Input
Amino acid sequence: HGKENGRNNYQFFTESLNEVATERLSLENSLRLAIERNEFVLYYQPQIDIKTNKLIGVEALIRWNHPQNGLISPAKFIPVAEDTGLIIPIGEWVLREICQQHFKWLEFGLPPIQIAVNVSAIQFQEKYFLSTLQGILRSYNMNPAYLELELTEGILMRDADTATGELHSLKELGVKLSIDDFGTGYSSLQYLSQFPIDKLKIDQTFVRAMSTHASSLAIVESIVSLAEKLHIKVIAEGVENNEELEILQKCGCTEIQGYYFSKPLPADQFFEWYYARL
Ligand code: C2E
Ligand code: MG
Ligand code: MG
Ligand code: MG
Output
């Protein structure tokens, strides 16, 4: 009897593994098609300087507009795109799209808008990332100063010496560099001071917890003063309410991104949002 049970368990185990593998394979296939069929869209979330109440720029955030399943969040498909290498063509599409969008908004009469874009580890480490980026900037005649690359601590600290060199090459192109989700990884402060970065983005978990947890508040305060001492900028992510805004203001953090000002918006809705504020 016990033996039979064991066999059933084994069978159940392999079947569910197969299921996972099959699901993954079909996701991979439809991701491939999604690139050809142009099913990705970018949403744009405003970033505000609360001292001047002016727009600093936007962060571009990808969504997959699946013909059957509707909008799919990047948390669902970016990991698969990374595992399969599809993040390379997807990342390229994102870079082209934001260059085009930058000029569309200009044509619509908006001032030039700085766009931040998330760069995955696989993309950053790929041999041709720098030259691809350079080619795209050139082909759109895009001023690199309006492009910000968001990297994570993990990307930079894995091999910090190599990363330092690559960051310098990117800076030479003229783009801006920031560290996303700052505080969640393991940054060596020594390296941090050597990286030619422009901005730290305080991770939203600290923002969320800072009003109830003294330790999170202490982390936010430390990141703000670290940025000050390194003469770089700092922005808080995921700010949802006035209480959080006031605490950040007290800490000296005046660049804000979050639902408090706006959720990420499709390009045309961002235009309306910004036009109404101008
Ligand atoms: P992230 O770069 O840290 O982006 C911030 C995430 O927080 C976004 O989720 C945004 O919609 C969300 N958010 C913004 N404000 C608030 C707020 O006030 N409250 C809450 N609860 N959430 C807020 P989203 O768009 O789902 O993106 C998730 C992650 O997917 C991003 O985290 C980024 O790591 C990745 N991602 C998004 N677009 C791209 C892309 O084009 N390429 C790559 N490689 N990764 C991307
Ligand atoms: Mg980001
Ligand atoms: Mg983040
Ligand atoms: Mg993140």
